[in-house]
What we know:
A hairpin with a 2-residue loop joins β18 and β19 (418-421). The longest helix has 16 residues, at 340-355. 24% of the residues lie in helices and 26% in strands. It contains 11 helices and 27 strands. It is an alpha/beta fold. Strands 2-5-8-9-10-11-12-13 form an 8-stranded parallel β-barrel, surrounded by 5 helices. α4 crosses α5 and α7 packs parallel to α9 (292-306).
Amino acid sequence: MKKKLVSLATFLLVALGVTAQQKDVQIRIYPEKGERVISKHIYGQFAEHLGNCIYGGLWVGEDSPIPNTNGYRNDVLQALKELNIPNLRWPGGCFADEYHWMDGIGPRENRPKMVNNNWGGVVEDNSFGTHEFLNLCELLECEPYISGNVGSGSVEELAKWVEYMTSDGDSPMANLRRQNGRDKAWKVKYIGIGNESWGCGGDMLPEYYADLYRRYAVYCRNFDGNRLFKIGSGASDYDYNWTDVLMNKVGTKMHGLSLHYYTVTGWSGSKGSATKFTPDDYYWIIGKSLEIEEVILKHMEIMDKYDKEKRVGLMVDEWGTWFDVEPGTNPGFLFQQSTMRDAFVAALTFGVFHKYTDRIQMANIAQIVNVLQSMILTKDDKMVLTPSYHVFDMYKVHQEATYLPLDIITSTKEIRGREVKVVDATASQKNGVTNISLTNIDLDKSYDVTIDVSGMNLKNVNARILTSAKVNDHNTFEKPDLIKPQAFTGAKIKDGKLVMKVPAMSIIQLEVK
Length: 513
């Protein structure tokens, strides 16, 4: 492993009392510089009609032998409640721009079927529709995020959907909703005007989509106190021109602009196995996941050019790992396992998001159950919590907390032509509690870590650790608890410093007060 120390200002090195030759990790937190709040919506989820995400994952129907509440799986429902999910995006994804919402209301036996052309060519029976989704959000106590159909839909269709969901008046769509069993309107804040309009959402040019957005947004109206937060269909990772055109031609007529970034080796050929990979493969994925920071900074720079007041939020509403599907599964279902490698991608990505909460207002991992970097895997009546789930659980303490800037001196590893910190950290504070999350991506070496917390009057520390014997370990239906958080007793407060040895390949969450 190639090592060198992260270059910091000389005064910081002196202040921390270290020299350039030291290999131990030194961190200083600056609570007095904490100004921005980490939006809980950065911890959002995404559910698409794709594979077994909805059917078999979230929804089994009231008549299923699998224990359920009004058709929603009890085990999955309870596990998701534990995460404090802030928002849930639905129905897609690419599926959204072929979805016609009126097919998913009324008696289920009368709902028309369709072919899911994007994902496996299977028949979609529309038994999970608007009522089922919005009622799920109420059960989870999260904000619904509706992705509207611009690709194959119409302005009228989307306008009526908004009215159906949010109008409490004596209006045609509100009365139709009442006929279908729901008297009171739902509260729906987030509405996406299309999805990936540059690709599966219509193969549009940015100039054309900009005009379409302006037209659609006019007719997505606010009814009876419900205030919409309208989100433009944004760029895929490195397409900076798309962001420039949208900000120039639409600007603050959008409340948010989306961005999609996947940690993937490429879009043609094999994407690699989710569970069988070499150390070099592992480090490459870690580097690719961290590249999201450079991508975000470039999109933010463009947004700042047109919106210095940061009124338009950057919404990273699809992110996560994308590997080959598990052997023997439908290639259109995108079912993949989740290992410690995925857990590191989640943890490191949150560390990036936390830095830029003045612009990033939402993020949604892809996806919630049984698809890509999912929180949960299901098979018949069995359920598995993935390592990624456990990261979301450990990191939820940062939701709505004040972000605390920090400096870190650590060894680095050269990955994809850039120096990556071997040990990294992110910190926040809320209600008198300081939460510090640490990651050690090194597969072989532990590090002595010292965190300067002098002046913060901290006396007690509780900690949990997520690790495993091998980086490609993963929870299975046969061994569902192979990877799960354990108590970590190695952290102590001594002379105003928090000291510990951070094991190789570990994620640690520290609660200090």
